[in-house]
Amino acid sequence: MPTGENSTAVIGRVAVIANDRAVLGVDPGSGRELWRVPSGEDDEVDVAGALIVHRRKTSTTDAVRFSVIDPANGRTLWQDGPVTKVQVTTDAVLTTGCGAGATCKITRKDLRTGKVGWSLRGDDVRLANAAVGVRRPSVPDTGQIFVSHRGDDRPLPPPEEGGPDRSGWYSVVVGRTLISTDHDPPSGDENCTVTVSAAEAGAARRAWTRKVYAGRNADGECEKRLAPSSTGLDLIGDGRRIAASTDTGRPQVFDLGSGRTVWRGDAPGVPIDGDGHTLLVRQHADTGALSLLDFVSGRVLWKAPDPGLPGESASWETAVTQRRVAVSGAEGDHPFVLVYDAATGRRLGRFPGWLQGLGNDWVAIGHDAKVNTLTLDFIRV
């Protein structure tokens, strides 16, 4: 599975490439186009296991239409809309439709067939808006979006009061625990505090509240996010545990199930990417040398020099898979991508252009070939 907020994903024997003109199915070996679906600037593509979901904003409203496509042949299996909102999981499409008087209904449909599983009032369903360790364009499991009745796929109703604050930045599900994160520090707080609250599904009160911390830029400013938006991640982690910083500026891994810190790093640094197996750390959130740490233990696996591109640059991208790590760099106005072997830290290549996707044995690089045209190189590494 590819990583990064990218335009390229390899699904089976097909590379799916999405841009503002089309979604393409391409043979990764030859580059031969296999199929094409028209696309627009605001369209989005979700990778849901062996299928993709192409979401399209309507021209006059914020409503969404979508198609479920088999990437093996480009065939549309079913489509629906307009609806107010769409959330895709590995086996379902959850649609929200709101009628007159702001009455909303949430419906679960089978991903492959479109068959309706259930349809409930919006007030009776609480859906998480994020999932730990799930990197766009990939989608979470359904169990990471809502807690269901045991032996059933219908969601438990939200508590009437208490529980995690729904006004937080992110809401996530870990097992049968509902988690909320608030990344806006309290007034007077200078520690980049992120407040994490938890409650068991069906409970009417919080189980615990803890503090973790966001990283800082080189100028001392709080980053607030625990994962850069360029990664395609909301929270770096493995589904249960997340990467964050300590109040002293060191990386840590925090367990959302127990509300406890698993480990703290020995040296200062800010987590900037990871795949649940390893954690990529930079000296500061926006600049500095790189280190790759073992996600389970915090042990430093290898280090690499500063790639020379600040994190706020539009060209800055990172990606981590089980076997490869890629980071953006630049010399003057010339961007490039560095690819490393995740196990050893050996640099496998330096490619001019912008990172468009990364897998365990490939990297996709975009570069300007002529005006208003982006050429994509698919490279085995």
Automatic annotation (TrEMBL):
The membrane spanning regions, by residue number, are none
Pfam families referenced in this protein's UniProt entry, alphabetically? PQQ_2
Please list which residues make up the signal peptide. none
Domain Pyrrolo-quinoline quinone repeat, residue spans: 13-80
What are the start and end residues of every segment in region (Disordered)? Answer: 139-168
Organism this protein belongs to: Actinomadura citrea
InterPro entries this protein is in?
Answer: PQQ_rpt_dom, Quinoprotein_ADH-like_sf, WD40/YVTN_repeat-like_dom_sf
Q: Specify the domain of life of the species encoding this protein.
A: Bacteria
Task: Please report the name of this protein according to its UniProt entry.
Answer: Pyrrolo-quinoline quinone repeat domain-containing protein
